[in-house]
Amino acid sequence: MQLVEALKGNLIALDFKAEGKDDVIESIVKAVEVGGYVADANGLRNALVEREKLGTTGVGGGVAIPHARCTAINDVTVAFFRSTNGVNFNSIDNKPVFLMFVLLAPLSSSGDYLKLLAKISRLLRHDEFRNALMEAQTPGEILEIVQEHE
Fold first, then answer.
1. Residue 77 is inside which H or E element, if any?
2. First CA to last CA across the chain, in angstroms?
3. What is the average per-residue pLDDT within 25-38?
4. How many domains does the chain have?
5. Parallel, antiparallel or unpaired: strands 97-105 and 63-64
């Protein structure tokens, strides 16, 4: 599965504002619920919170990759949130997060889930990719950038 296929245009936020990790999780749940991608918002919230308890998904360098597999999600779904001011996400480097790819998948989708998680992580290691994401003006541009780089 290609990342650009899983990334939903209506789940791309370019001026995301949040106070901290809990606020980010609530915003993720709300966006996914409004988009119609989740059957059980509370189940998704719990899955994201439980995953964060295992260790932060704020991987450093201004990047976070919140992710979870749960029964509340029907299909592999990716969202993208960009914060121009940065969000305190308790990242491993204790620096604010500006770019967040959110990966959600049903329990039955371990193969695609792991491949997409690895792909997102690999892409975000490249300065050129991160810089292009920061400069994009529209959700369409985000989709184009992802497609060009994967």
1. strand 77-87
2. 11
3. 92
4. 1
5. parallel
What sections of the chain are H helices per DSSP? 3-6, 21-34, 41-54, 110-124, 127-135, 139-149
Residues involved in catalysis = 67
**% of the chain at pLDDT higher than 70:** 100
Distance, in Å, from the CA atom of 68 to the CA atom of 101, rounded to the nearest integer, reads 12
Segments forming the whole domain that contains residue 16: 3-149
Percentages helix, strand, coil for the chain (3-state, rounded to 5) are 45, 25, 30
pTM: 0.93
CB 66 within 8 A of CB 100: yes
Strands 67-69 and 97-105: parallel
Q: What is the CATH number of the domain that holds 90?
A: 3.40.930.10
